[in-house]
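On clarity, I found the account of how folds are encoded harder to follow than it need be. What matters is that the chain and its backbone geometry are given together, residue for residue. I therefore recommend that a typical entry be quoted early in the introduction. An entry of this sort, consisting of the sequence and the corresponding backbone structure tokens, reads as follows:
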Amino acid sequence: MEKAIIVGISVLGSALIIIAAVFAATKNNREVAVKALDCMSRQPEIASTFQINMLIAMGLVESIPIIAAVIAIVLVMANPF
């Protein structure tokens, strides 16, 4: 019974970690897009460079929740209790 409670709390904790990472990535993706669009509107002649940089930055930001999910799942599976 105690082990089931510990596993349940571990799963809940990992879910909270994943949710926090997803919300942080969403917020940061929004900021990257806003800054890139601001740069594109100020200098439209090099907008394609800003667009490429924006897509690369968004891809890097999106990797954070994936890494957090993998770490959270590994921590649940390797629970020492």
Summary: The CA atoms of residues 25 and 62 lie 6 Å apart. The domain at 2-77 is CATH 1.20.20.10 (F1FO ATP Synthase).
